[in-house]
Amino acid sequence: MENLLTGTTRHAIKFLESLEQRKVFPTPEAIEQLNSFYEPLPSQSMKPEEVINILNNLGTPALVANAGGRYFGFVIGGSLPAALAANWLAGAWDQNAFSNSSSPLAAALEEISLKWIAEALVLPSDCGGAFVTGATMANFSGLAAARHKVLEDMGWDVENDGLFGAPPIKVVVGEEAHSTLFKALGLLGLGRKRVLTVPVDGQGRMKAEALPPLDKSTIVCIQAGNVNTGAFDPAEEICAIAHAAGAWVHVDGAFGLWALATPNKAHLAAGFKNADSWATDAHKWLNVPYDSGVVLVRNPKHLYKAMSISATYLPEGMKKEPFHYTPETSRRARGIESWAALKSLGRLGLIELIERNCRFARLFAERLRAEGYEILNEVQLNQVLVSFGSAEITGKVIAAIQADGTCWCGGTTWQGHVAMRISVSSWCTTEEDVEQSLAAMLRIATEIVDKEAKE
Ligand SMILES: *Cc1c(COP(=O)(O)O)cnc(C)c1O
């Protein structure tokens, strides 16, 4: 075991040390090599060292370097050193986090991490929830609690009787709600399209004055951090209107909710603490390894009612049992990494991480704008949308930046305009990474724009 694990550690360290130099996206040849993995199920056994060697030799060249500082695609954090090390230890420990009897440590660290996250985000101190795989399942879980509560209020027991014949629920979403929110609604039988859609402004913020009539059968879904612009719905106003009508407010705050952790950004997310349930990710801005999402509910009883199960062999103690709050039962112990991340950062380190990322996003925007490129969003958080000209030119620039490999950014279409998305979310992005990436972006954009002008 010792040789195997120390050898594996060496492979991992070598990879991490290569991040500075390697192309951020693998070459087509390295991806082609992955074909060697496609073989029939082997009938013979193989030594673990040999298995790891194959994995390392074929796998490492094909890796995407999002663990490094120049990956700006989607919204993807890296892994903080303490969180990565805790993840290794947790792998060796192999704890099942479903209950206190399967792992007292996993249950304790989940409870503590959830409390710390609520504290960091300045959410109500008596809220409670669970660790899940990501914001998709956190949205699912928060909305399951909401579905329970609004139907209970109308005298319907949805967990036992299902939705057939149930009083209708009204679901209100913004026009720019995240695609995963619709998936969660679909999974809950509430329908991906059976929603009332509220128009948004140029940043993707819901217009509070355009809300439809709300009542106690309503679930309003608001967003902290639009995946393109980073913008926030007007939570203060919407929560006030919704609560006056007896409606439930659910927040999709996969990354944007973390603005609440920093005094300089908290005003952007003002009012989000007034909601009834919150979905967020730890694997995005808290920079823990994949996968890790968090659902928090103002009154955790509603989540319990939506998720709890009983069986004669399942433990029923005085302690909070994680499996009563999660869609899954057996689970890996995600609380371990979040505990390590928050313990190593402390509140001040978390603030510094978020503010640094936001500062770098501003730097990207300022420099690109100074070179004559259009920034399509108000850069208030960590997201930048840049257009290099026409849709065709912008598309070509994005493809060339991705092929160049100095950094990686994805494309998007924002309210009809093709743009490149820059998301600064990693603890390890330095100013030098930003400068190096800007130099590559500007060199490539100039080349393509000049070439197009000649043709
Ligand atoms: C990333 C994201 C999600 C989905 O999160 P996963 O962790 O991928 O499940 C949902 N909503 C928003 C706003 C996001 O940015």
Helix content class: 40-55%
Biggest β-sheet: strands ordered side by side in the sheet: 1-7-6-5-4-2-3
Mean pLDDT: 97
- List the bound ligands: pyridoxal-5'-phosphate
| String of helices and strands | HHHHHEHHEHEEHEEEHHEEHEEH
Proportion of residues in extended strands: 5-15%
Outline, from the CA principal axes? globular
In total, the number of strands is 11
Radius of gyration: 23 Å
Residue stretches low in confidence (pLDDT < 50, at least 5 long) are none
**Count of helix runs:** 13
Largest sheet: 7 strands, mixed
Strand-pairing-aware structural class = alpha/beta
- The span between the termini is 62 Å
Describe the protein.
There is one protein chain. With 455 residues, the chain is an alpha/beta fold. Helices cover 41% and strands 12% of the residues. The strands form two sheets. Strands 1-7-6-5-4-2-3 form a seven-stranded mixed β-sheet, with helices on both faces. The protein has a four-stranded antiparallel β-sheet with strand order 8-9-11-10. The longest helix is centred in the C-terminal third of the chain and has 36 residues, at 335-370. The protein starts with a helix and ends with a helix. The chain binds pyridoxal-5'-phosphate.
Annotate the secondary structure layout.
Layout: H1 2-18, H2 28-33, H3 48-59, H4 81-93, H5 104-120, E1 128-132, H6 135-153, H7 158-161, E2 170-174, H8 179-187, E3 196-198, E4 218-223, H9 235-244, E5 248-252, E6 277-281, E7 293-297, H10 301-307, H11 335-370, E8 374-375, E9 383-387, H12 391-404, E10 410-414, E11 417-423, H13 431-454
Parallel strand pairs: 2-3, 2-4, 4-5, 5-6
Antiparallel strand pairs: 1-7, 6-7, 8-9, 9-11, 10-11
Helix pairs in contact: 1-3, 4-11, 5-11, 6-8, 6-10, 11-13, 12-13
The structure holds pyridoxal-5'-phosphate.
Pyridoxal-5'-phosphate is lined by residues 75, 134-136, 178, 180, 225, 227, 252, 254-255, 281, 293.
